[in-house]
């Protein structure tokens, strides 16, 4: 499974999410985000025909990220919400394929992880 994990500000638009995903230059098989922010990502998941995986706060803080954003650390107890979402959703022993990419408007981030299972 190849998961695109997202982190985004409350004012993020569908264009912000598309741009962050496009910056990763990888086609995912699922999308993931913090469970309390899934509503914003629903339309992108439906448009792409991909499942949407909610990520718990515990899973976010447990994931080891390459990026260490002070804002993400303060808000979600992780260095990168996008990276942590992708890694947690991809399952145990997942590997980060694409570290956090930021949309041009700086409203959304996306990272790609691959899990060991199909």
Automatic annotation (TrEMBL):
SUPFAM superfamilies: CobE/GbiG C-terminal domain-like (SSF159664). Transmembrane segments: none annotated. InterPro entries: CobE/GbiG_C (IPR002750), CobE/GbiG_C_sf (IPR036518). Residues 2-113 form the CobE/GbiG C-terminal domain. Coiled coil: none annotated. Signal peptide: none annotated. Pfam families: CbiG_C. This is Cobalamin biosynthesis protein. The lineage of its organism: Bacteria, Pseudomonadati, Pseudomonadota, Alphaproteobacteria, Sphingomonadales.
């Amino acid at each position: 499974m190849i998961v695109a994990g997202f982190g985004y500000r409350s004012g993020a638009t569908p264009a912000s999410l598309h741009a962050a995903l496009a910056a990763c230059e990888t086609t995912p098989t699922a999308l993931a985000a913090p469970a309390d922010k899934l509503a914003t990502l629903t339309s992108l998941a439906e448009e792409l025909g991909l499942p949407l995986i909610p990520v718990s706060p515990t899973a976010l803080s447990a994931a080891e990220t390459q990026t260490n954003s002070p804002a993400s650390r303060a808000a979600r107890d992780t260095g990168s919400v996008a990276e942590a979402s992708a890694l947690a959703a991809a399952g145990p022993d997942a590997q980060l394929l694409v570290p956090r990419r930021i949309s041009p408007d700086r409203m959304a981030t996306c990272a790609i992880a691959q899990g060991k299972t199909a």
